[in-house]
Amino acid sequence: MRKQINVLHLSAAKNWGGGENHIENLCFELDKMEEKIQNFILCVKNGAFHQKIKNQELNVLTAPMLIKLDLRYAVKILYFCQKHQISLIHIHDSTALTLAVMATKLGNLPPFILSKKTSFPIKERSGTLYKYNHPQIQKILCVSEKTKEITSKQIKDSSKLTAIYHGTSMKKNSCTDVNLRKKLNIPEDKVIIGCIANHIRAKNLETWVKTIDEIINKRQNSKFHFVQIGSFTDRSPNYLQQIEKLNLKDHVSFLGFIPNASAIIPQFDVSLLTSQSEGIPQFIYESFYYKVPVVSTNVGGIPEIIEDEVNGMLSNPYEAASLADKLIALQNNKNLMQKFTALSHQRLIENFTSKKMAEQTLAEYKKVLYGKNRSGS
């Protein structure tokens, strides 16, 4: 009989984002399967991810991280692997990968599986190339075919790469105390354009601000109100200053980080994403789920799930005028909005659920532990 698989998931992220949502969904789905599998999540003590999952039915382990590469985290990896008889380690971000490689210097560890969740190319630095090609890594799970293509350029053994779309959970906690129109005093005739994205470079909120300026100031169209949800960073003051400078305060609301923000998506009339780099954002999957039409840039793996004018609208990155065109066109065509959302929801159910993602991930776990042609019994 095949023995139980114990997986240690590593997250060194201090904020909550799509990558952390992926870990949460993956562990919940794996826990529901009939397979003998037990998941442990090692995250940053008192970080946003820890705060989000600490009271859930998950095996949550923590390590302190006062500096980016805190050796205590690496020590904890070795300790928990021994304590819980870990079968393999699933690494979910670049910092966690560095710490896991550091931990290999401290003792023997089980095989690694790495999730590559962004379309950023791997940098041509010796240390970076070393860790991504570390012999302990048996599989690299890419969030999209585009991510796989980009990652393959710096991976010596491309057979390690496979694409697994993350998708979203079909079981949603849609309860929220936030009523956007009431909270922000948005009139009923205003179209709410929503964006959920942390204030990081990849999300390119500079173009988001320029798109609003294009619609409100240059085209004198005041039918819209723009709502942005996501963790503030050192980039945030610049966005706020631009909104002030362009006299857009009455048309824009920055709400910062909100727990369970996806539950607010049904209150959006349109979801807008202006990213310059992506794997595939969770925000799009969840907009599909809640049947909210999407206007997005065509970066990373996004064109793999959205066809322009078929189930959403796509624009090249940085093109604020084009994004404005598409928002206005969509707002004026309710039938097109319904067509997009119906098709996107259908595609989500058929191809992009967290259950399907977990099944495919478990298959990769088994390949690493038992080989492709062995039963493992």
Describe the structure.
The radius of gyration is 21 Å and the shape is globular. The chain has helices at residues 18-32, 48-53, 71-83, 94-103, 126-132, 145-152, 180-184, 205-218, 236-245, 282-289, 320-331, 334-351, 354-370; strands at 5-10, 37-44, 59-63, 88-91, 112-116, 137-142, 161-163, 191-196, 224-229, 252-256, 270-273, 294-297, 313-315. The strands form two sheets. A seven-stranded parallel sheet has the order 3-2-1-4-5-6-7, with helices on both faces. A six-stranded parallel sheet has the order 10-9-8-11-12-13, sandwiched between helices. The chain is built from 13 helices and 13 strands. By secondary structure, it is an alpha/beta fold. The model is unreliable at 373-377 (pLDDT under 50). The longest helix has 18 residues, at 334-351. The protein has two domains: 5-167 and 353-370, Glycogen Phosphorylase B (Rossmann fold, 3-Layer(aba) Sandwich), CATH 3.40.50.2000; 180-351, Glycogen Phosphorylase B (Rossmann fold), CATH 3.40.50.
SSE layout and pairing:
Elements (H helix, E strand, L loop, with lengths): L4 E6 L7 H15 L4 E8 L3 H6 L5 E5 L7 H13 L4 E4 L2 H10 L8 E5 L9 H7 L4 E6 L2 H8 L8 E3 L16 H5 L6 E6 L8 H14 L5 E6 L6 H10 L6 E5 L13 E4 L8 H8 L4 E4 L15 E3 L4 H12 L2 H18 L2 H17 L7
Parallel strand pairs: 1-2, 1-4, 2-3, 4-5, 5-6, 6-7, 8-9, 8-11, 9-10, 11-12, 12-13
Low-confidence stretches: 373-377
* Series of H and E elements: EHEHEHEHEHEHEHEHEHEEHEEHHH
Q: Mean pLDDT score, rounded?
A: 94
Which sequence of strands runs across the widest sheet?
A: 3-2-1-4-5-6-7
Please report the first level of CATH classification, the CATH class of the largest domain: Alpha Beta
The number of helical runs is: 13
| Overall domain count | 2
> What is the radius of gyration computed over CA atoms, rounded to a whole number of angstroms?
21 Å
Q: How many strand elements?
A: 13
Categorize the overall geometry: globular
What class, by secondary structure content?
Answer: alpha/beta
Helix content: 25-40%
CATH architecture annotation name of the largest domain: 3-Layer(aba) Sandwich
What oligomeric state do the depicted chains represent?
Answer: single chain
User: Strand portion, in percent?
Assistant: 15-25%
**CATH homologous superfamily (4th level) name of the largest domain:** Glycogen Phosphorylase B
Separation, N- and C-terminal Cα atoms? 5 Å
Largest sheet: 7 strands, parallel
CATH topology of the largest domain: Rossmann fold
